[in-house]
Each structure stands twice: as structure tokens, then as C-alpha cells.
């Protein structure tokens, strides 16, 4: 497993988890717009016009490539039990279509998404992934963060441990990111904070992706403020994924 480029202190872990609990208690007041999200959601293949021009022409080729990547994780029970294939397929597809130089993701766990994105970057023969994860305070709840990523992909990967709000300004410059992916703490406060930071980091024309976007109103409130283009895609296991154009 790759050694992280930065790790949180004990005090950071404690404070971060206390704040997370507070945010979760506040989330009940930010759910009124969830039916709007569900009503707007569609399948990826129905939304191809939303993606870079020409990507629909290579949809089937990239889908076959993704199947090979997915099947290489067929023995990983934890991955298939928790990951939503709709999200990893979107990540692979968008990475192949946009051919990004820099992707930033929050939320790593065992590294299923990281593995998928890095394989897409490798196929593109360009690009780098910066991953941020905030490990649980209790050791018994921790996993091998990013353990699915093999050493052969390390050259395109940076892993940082700690709260995203503290690390995001440090790991990427404003306007340098092509794709930002939120898959960390799905509370209204944290999602909103990450979207606002991502808006600064992502280039015009780049993408912000949020998994579990129907957990609260954060995505709809954000796009209303920014007056930007967006789509909701259906997740195979229920819920939605949001795609926002910077």
C-alpha cells in the first residue's frame, strides 16, 4: 500500500470526527429538495450529449475496457459489496473522454475508485490523481486505505490523509484541476464546503462529480447559486450521482 504524502495528527482526527457528528445532526433540515433530484435523474447512456464532444462514438469501446478493469477486481468482496458500479463506470468514462491532466478525489477507502481512475489515466498515457481520505478515529474501523492500487500505478498517484477542507487548498492550485470527485462525508455542510473549494480549483469547462447526491439539498442549492449546468445520474444501488460543469 502506498505511503500517504501527509497524515493527520491525533488532534485533527478528534476534532474532525466531532465536527462530522455535529454536521450529521444538522442534516435533517437540508432534505426538502430530494424529490427534485430523484425526478431529474437518468442513466449515463441517456446523457452522453452532456459530456465532451465525440465521446459517444467511443462509448462501447471504453465500456469494454472498463469491464476488463472491473473484472480484475472480481475477487475483492469489499469492493463489490460497497462500491457502486455506476460511479466507477462514470469515473472511467469521463477520464477517458476528457483526457485530464489532474483529477482530485475525496474519499478513498480501499481504493476502488482510485484504481479505476488510474487505469483510465494509464490508458490515456497522461494525467495524475490526487486522493484525499480522512481515516476513522477508532483503529478498529480503519482499512488499508488505497490498498487496491498496485505499485505499477503509483507514478500517477498522490495520497494524502486528513480533512479535505484543510488539504484541498494545499494539494492543488486554483484553476489546475480538470475533474473533482466528492465521495467523502455526505453531510450538507461538508459537501457544500467541498463544492465551493472545488469551484475554485476546477478549470472552466471542467467537471465536479458528487456521489450520493440525493443525500441532501447541497447539490441543488449549489448549482442554484452558481447558475451552472448539471445532471443527475442514477446509481445502480439507488440514489444519484451529480455532475456539475464548471
Keywords:
246 residues, alpha/beta, seven-stranded mixed beta sheet, 9 helices, 7 strands
Task: Describe the structure in brief.
The chain has 246 residues and is α/β, with parallel strands linked by helices. The protein is built from nine helices and seven strands; from the N terminus they run H-H-H-H-H-E-H-E-E-H-E-H-E-H-E-E. The longest helix has 17 residues, at 10-26.
Q: Looking at the structure, what is the overall shape?
A: globular
CATH topology label? Rossmann fold
Strand order of the largest sheet: 3-2-1-4-5-7-6
- pLDDT averaged residue by residue: 91
What is the CATH C-level name?
Alpha Beta
What is the CATH-assigned architecture? 3-Layer(aba) Sandwich
Oligomer: single chain
The biggest sheet amounts to:
7 strands, mixed
Query: Low-confidence segments, ≥5 residues, pLDDT <50?
Result: none
The proportion of strand residues reads: 15-25%
Order of helices and strands: HHHHHEHEEHEHEHEE
Radius of gyration: 17 Å
Q: In whole angstroms, how far apart are the ends?
A: 33 Å
**Integer tally of domains:** 1
Full CATH superfamily name? Vaccinia Virus protein VP39
Structural class label:
alpha/beta
Q: How many distinct beta strands? A: 7
Put simply, the count of helices is 9
Amino acid at each position: 500500500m502506498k505511503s500517504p504524502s501527509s497524515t493527520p495528527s491525533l488532534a485533527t482526527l478528534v476534532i474532525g470526527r466531532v465536527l462530522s457528528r455535529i454536521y450529521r445532526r444538522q442534516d435533517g433540515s437540508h432534505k426538502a429538495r430530494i424529490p427534485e433530484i430523484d425526478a431529474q435523474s437518468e442513466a449515463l447512456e441517456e446523457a452522453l450529449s452532456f459530456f465532451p464532444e465525440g465521446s459517444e462514438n467511443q462509448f462501447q469501446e471504453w465500456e469494454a475496457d472498463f469491464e476488463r478493469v472491473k473484472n480484475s477486481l472480481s475477487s475483492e468482496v469489499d469492493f463489490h459489496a460497497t462500491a457502486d458500479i455506476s460511479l466507477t463506470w462514470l469515473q472511467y468514462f469521463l477520464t477517458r473522454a476528457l483526457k485530464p491532466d489532474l483529477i482530485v478525489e475525496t474519499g478513498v477507502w480501499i481504493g476502488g475508485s482510485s484504481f479505476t481512475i488510474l487505469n483510465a489515466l494509464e490508458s490515456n498515457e497522461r494525467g495524475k490523481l490526487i486522493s484525499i481520505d480522512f481515516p476513522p478515529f477508532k483503529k478498529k474501523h480503519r482499512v488499508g486505505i488505497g490498498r487496491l492500487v498496485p505499485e505499477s500505478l503509483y507514478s500517477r498517484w498522490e495520497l494524502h490523509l486528513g480533512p479535505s477542507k484543510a488539504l484541498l487548498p494545499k494539494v492543488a492550485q486554483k484553476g489546475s484541476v480538470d475533474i473533482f470527485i466528492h465521495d467523502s462525508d455526505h453531510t450538507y455542510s461538508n459537501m457544500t464546503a467541498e463544492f465551493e473549494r472545488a469551484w475554485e480549483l476546477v478549470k472552466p469547462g471542467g467537471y465536479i462529480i458528487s456521489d450520493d447526491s440525493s443525500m441532501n439539498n447541497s447539490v441543488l442549492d449549489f448549482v442554484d447559486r452558481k447558475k451552472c449546468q448539471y445532471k443527475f445520474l442514477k446509481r445502480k444501488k439507488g440514489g444519484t450521482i451529480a455532475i456539475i460543469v464548471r
